[in-house]
Target: ATP-grasp domain-containing protein
Amino acid sequence: MASPASGAAPRLAVVGNPGNRRVTLFADAVRAAGLPAPRVVAWRDVLRDGGADFDAREVVRLDSPGEDDEVDRRLRGEGHAPTRVDGSARWYAGFLAAVAGLRGGRRLDDPDDLAVLFDKRRCHAVLRAAGVPVPASPTSGPGAAPVRGWDDVRELMRAHRLPRVFVKPAHGSSASGVLAVETAGGGRVRATTSVERAADGHLHNSLKVRRYDGEADVAAIVDALAPDGLHLERWLPKASQTGRAADLRVVVVGGRATHAVVRTSRSPLTNLHLGGRRGDLDAARAAVEAAGARWSDLLDVCERAAACFPRTLCVGVDLLPAVGWRRAAVGEVNAFGDLLPGLTGLPGSGAEGRDTYAAQVAEILRPHAEPAAGAGPRRPPAPDSGRAAGAHRPPRPPAPYSPPAPHREGPTDARLPSGR
Model:
């Protein structure tokens, strides 16, 4: 990126699926900032050509390769139906290889961060090591237990006294393949999931959340998912809003929590595409304050999670508020968690009036902007007394995001998984 002193605006490029809403929303934000439209490099071309080249002056954003059947086939393999749940390990290896083939430019999404963000076991271990509150898990960190199938899941639940767990594909996203598993006396087992088991035994994603009662059905699903790698987490009881389980997606841009949305559901899966609804953010803030906690402390948890990935401009943090709204844990950190159309920034975040994409463009441009006369710090502190319930006053200012040096071909960090 050009030096701030030069005053030269950056040249932007985005690797994504042309015409996809993510690419369109980012391009709209770039143009609205008075910049030329970003150069769009298609994932299908990257996968076909074995990479892509960028000018050293280009600032390169990576967007999700999802929602494109051709790209999915290239990542998972020909003949693999796009609705199939399995194949995520192959997708992960293919995605990392494609990212490693991007040469030059200055990245907004660090390749080694992505390798961790798309492995739930490794991400959980990184967060836990940094002191970020996370659900208990027997499958992350040194000495993590292998999960070869349902028998291992059953034994881990017993050994760690986990009567309720989330079973997650290690490299999944958007709740694909996730099961909320409960056990009870008499050997009873129940799982809530969006997985649909076809007559041929293949597992498919569905927009309908369903329940499987009976150990045989649950075991068959887990056994089919296990070859791709599985991650187990304690199923934490969540806070509720209007009688529905509630959690939050918090977007962190440049180290600062800028956007948040409450997601509610009558099922354990709150994803909006699975029937979850947007909840009342003001009511959530009020519930936190009424419980004697501080809203800023919840946002700080998200910023601490994002700080584990300092070379990546933007992440989406899934925050799980506990019953009573006093405490919260981080469920996941998402590399492409910024798709919240029409949602504007939190009060005091510096992103007021901007959607998630405009906030990222503003952060990219921030080193190039001359401070206004008399301008104060990025996030001036406010006194505790009298501040609005939604005001964002974290206990420490985050360090400004700075893209890494131009990337060269090949892996750059030992954190990349071996053999992939």
User: Anything to note?
Assistant: Residues 4-108 form one domain. Residues 89 and 228 are 5 Å apart (CA to CA). The first helix runs from residue 21 to 32.
